[in-house]
Amino acid sequence: MENKTQEEASTIKVSSLTCIDLANPNFQQSAVSLKQACLDCGFFYVTNHGISEELKDEAFEQSKKFFALPLEEKMKVLRNEKHRGYSPVLDQILDPENQVDVVLPGWRATMEKYHQEALRVCKAIARLLALALDLDTNYFDKPEMLGNPIAVMRLLRYEGMSDPLKGIFGCGAHSDYGMLTLLATDSVTGLQDKDVKPRKWEYVPSIKGAYIVNLGDLLERWSNGIFKSTLHRVLGNGQDRYSIPFFIEPSHDCLVECLPTCQSENNLPKYPAIKCSTFLTQRYQQSHVNLSIYKQP
């Protein structure tokens, strides 16, 4: 069985994703490239994003310091009802105020700076997405959309060896349920996406200086299924693997309904309108364990 698992992993090819230069002055050219990536697989890289390697390295260093804490210290900042804080292993089934400053003084300053920078980059990507959808560049900047966004950063550590044949993964196959995800990873291989056309898993390698971006279910719904929210997973290879995903969604009160440029007489809206907070709450509850199981009797 172990040999079969290794053989399966060795035959998985490496994904060849589009790379979008955020410093390209020709916005329309970038939007065309981005649109093709969103139609094909919903995954792409961004470069020249303006986030320094020093800041990213510091964020990873702070992440490692947190995960090195004893379990009882991490549990002091258990994820709260606003989904801020520490999530124990297996808390998220698919597989703060930031409270962690209580146990790691100085942690907040680094993470807040990184959060601000990641949010800036996501908004820049959203402007290109608007162009790719034949909308005004600032369409998603409206107050009810990304003018007052839901922006969540997570620090993740994957441990151990995966065995797909036994259903053991660092993180099981899933699609993200928000608008888009900006992902920083270390150099340890593990992330895979599922190619839409051959429906086979492909490794998504980390590229120095670039971020991985993938679209979420909310944007697929917004675009009437035109843009793709792609399945992805993480396979552990025995090495600790760290990543920092940054999720961005429109405001809680945003009504997500088919975009005007994504419907016609021959392509009617496929999904009913839904409030962003309702959609995200439903999806979150489907994929996470209830916090009450961690409370003392």
UniProtKB/TrEMBL annotation:
GO terms for molecular function: dioxygenase activity; metal ion binding. Keywords: Iron, Metal-binding, Oxidoreductase. Residues 149-250 form the Fe2OG dioxygenase domain. Pfam families: 2OG-FeII_Oxy (PF03171), DIOX_N (PF14226). It comes from the Eukaryota. Belongs to the iron/ascorbate-dependent oxidoreductase family. This is Uncharacterized protein F18L15.200.
